[in-house]
Structures are given as C-alpha cells and as structure tokens.
Amino acid sequence: MVMGFSENLQNSMEYANTAFKTFGSWFVLILLYAVMFAGTVMLILGMIFLMGSLMMVAAPMISSAADPAMMTGPMMTDPAFGIIASISVFLFILGTIVTIFASIFIYGFMMRVYRGGELALNNWGKMFIEGILALIILFIYMIPYTVVSTITMLGPMDNPAYLIIVAIIIPTILLIISMMVGMMGVIKFAKEESFGAAFHFKELFSIIARIGWLRYLGYMILISLIVSVAELVLLCIPFAGSVLLVAAMPFIVIVTARFFANLYDSAIPAAAE
C-alpha cells in the first residue's frame, strides 16, 4: 500500500533523526552546502554586476542616438568598464563552477539517502560519479520541456489563446510530468545503481500510476510548501538566518529525499504484482 503523506513525513523525519545521531560527517555536509551557497551568491553577483555595467554603456549610447550632445557616461573603451566587466565575468564563471562542483557531491550523497541504510561520506569518487549521472538524468528528462517551450516561443505570442494554451499551459504540464518521472527515474537509478534503469519508462509509469498522478503531484506540492515555509522562517531571523539555513539544509534534504524514496518503495510491491 502506498504510504500516506503524514506517515511518510513522520518516517522520513525519524530516518533523518537517526542519521543525525549516527552520521559523523554533518560538518562536511554543511560545508558542502556553504560552498554551494557561496558559489550561487558569486554567480548572482556576477550577473548583476555584468548587467549593471552593460546598462551603464547602453544608456549613453541610447541618449547619443537621440541627441549627440547628450553623450555622457562610460564607454566600452573606458578602463573602469573593462575592470568591472572582467570582475563580473570572473565571479560568474567561478560561481558557476563552484556551484556545480558542490551540487555534484550533494546529489551523490542524495543517492545514498535514496538507497537507505546507513549514511556515510566515503568513497568520494563514486559519490562524484553518481552525482554527475544523477544530474545528467535530470537534464535528459528536461530536454522535451526545453525543446517544446523554445519552439512555442517562436509562435504568435500576441495571440492570447496561443499564449495561454500553447505557450504556457502545455509547457507547464510537460515540465510537471518531466519532473515527476525524472524524480522516480533518479531514485530507480540510485537503488539499482544502473544508469539505464532511470529510463525504464514502463516500470516508472507503472510505479507512478500505483501512487496516483494527482496524489504524487499533491505530495510534491505539500512537501515543497513545508520546506519553503521552514526556509522562510529561518531567513526571517536577522543576521543568523542564512547561517542557520545552510546548517539545516542537510537535514531538510535528507527528509525530502527519504520522503520520495519511501513513496517509490511503497509502490514497488504493488507495481510488481
């Protein structure tokens, strides 16, 4: 029988509590999240600075087009612009690399949560490889959505019916389905330790059908809301909120990952009958 939401959440929190008492590498895991957080901040700052510097150049160019006498502000030949642009690009590239690198290890750790059993931060090479494969699986599952949403953007966007139905509703439905099947695909990959298992569509659709598409979607929304509220509460704490959020992220991710692994496990016997 498929686990109910309350039972599953309680089970997942008990699993995380047990892990909290026995898992000896919390500091390392928290450090990984801190590195990912720092990388994301650098990435965002790089984008902001780069956009700001480009706007500084674009504004006088637009003004000069209307009235040459209004030509003011820095140009692309200005050394200050070059310095700002270089720093922006450096922050963006470094932030992207750091974020991806930390995310790979975090996803590799999540594979162990999906499998269940005792958690450990060891065999880093395997964890790195599994993290990469998990991200590749999710990327592949997002390809149909990316292609369809890109194609729909080329259509008559000034047509309200086309905009709502074709450009918004259809890509959104495809995104939701891709996320739902992709999640189960990653869990199946983690449990069977086979990349191809993530694309056994007949089995995956059978498992999701047993869970119930609407129930599965409802659970995803509920768990996302709970996590979002918890994160917002922590962020509302002045100064220390961000630090507390980073420290709490391993616990939150373990609970969330275990929740979906339980959902998968509870549908397996019925799906296999």
Task: Describe the overall structure.
The protein is mostly helical. It contains 8 helices and no strands. Helix 1 packs across helix 8. The longest helix has 41 residues. The two termini are 12 Å apart.
What descriptors fit this protein?
mainly alpha; single chain; 8 helices
Strand runs, count: 0
Series of H and E elements: HHHHHHHH
State the end-to-end CA separation.
12 Å
Residue share in β-strands: under 5%
Shape: globular
Largest sheet: none
The overall pLDDT average reads: 85
- Contiguous runs where pLDDT drops below 50 for at least 5 residues: none
Structural class: mainly alpha
Number of helices: 8
User: Nearest-angstrom radius of gyration?
Assistant: 23 Å
Helix content: over 70%
